[in-house]
Specification:
Layout (H helix, E strand, L loop, with lengths): L2 H17 L4 H9 L1 H8 L2 H5 L6 H14 L3 H13 L4 H9 L7 H15 L3 H12 L2 H24 L7 E4 L2 E4 L6
Antiparallel strand pairs: 1-2
Helix pairs in contact: 2-3, 5-6, 5-7, 5-8, 5-10, 8-9
Length: 183
């Protein structure tokens, strides 16, 4: 086997172990074309961009984007990453349940903006202004990137036949149902 492919497979397996997440779609891309996987990997900087934006607002947008694509494993991955990076599990659960009353102001703003943007709702304009006033232009770009990038992986997985519907997610050691539809 090609040593580069072996190294990539090892890195994929390490990610799977670390996050308890099936990367079969990445192995499928690698088998079809290493160049395709390298091209896909170039978006990783885009998916991680966060400047001048609170973690909870950023992850709220990522979770809304992932939920909109209805991919349970992707939602679980994003929720786990949010928790690992220090987002309060109460806030993660609030986003997954669309419980705005339980959200902090930062979480709620990221959540509401992501929902409005996905729905092409005119309220996005008002929320965009609030984001700019509160956190600035880099934060708005961060939210836009978070929302957009969160949708790439589920869409790709479904297109390749690896998507799975979202029903339950584990947050803070507790399994919980999620509300997948934009509300």
């Amino acid at each position: 086997m090609n040593p580069l492919k072996s190294l990539i497979r090892w890195r994929i397996a390490a990610f799977e172990r670390e996050h308890d997440y099936d990367m079969g779609y990445a192995r499928e891309i690698l088998d079809a074309s290493p160049h395709a996987l390298f091209s896909f990997n170039r978006i990783m900087g885009f998916t991680r961009y966060r400047q001048d934006l609170p973690l909870e607002a950023w992850y709220a947008a990522k979770l809304v984007g992932t939920l909109a694509e209805d991919c349970g494993p992707c939602t679980q991955l994003v929720a786990g990453m949010a928790e690992r990076e220090g987002m309060d599990p109460v806030q993660i659960r609030a986003v997954l349940q669309h419980d705005r009353a339980a959200m902090t102001p930062g979480t709620a703003l990221g959540f509401r903006f992501a929902q409005a943007a996905l729905a092409h709702d005119a309220q996005a304009d008002e929320l965009r202004g609030e984001i700019l006033r509160r956190w600035g232009a880099k934060a708005l770009v961060s939210l836009a990137f978070a929302l957009t990038s969160a949708r790439i992986f589920p869409t790709l997985k479904y297109a390749l036949g690896h998507g799975q519907s979202c029903r339950r997610v584990r947050v803070g050691g507790v399994d919980m149902p999620v509300r997948a539809a934009i509300a």
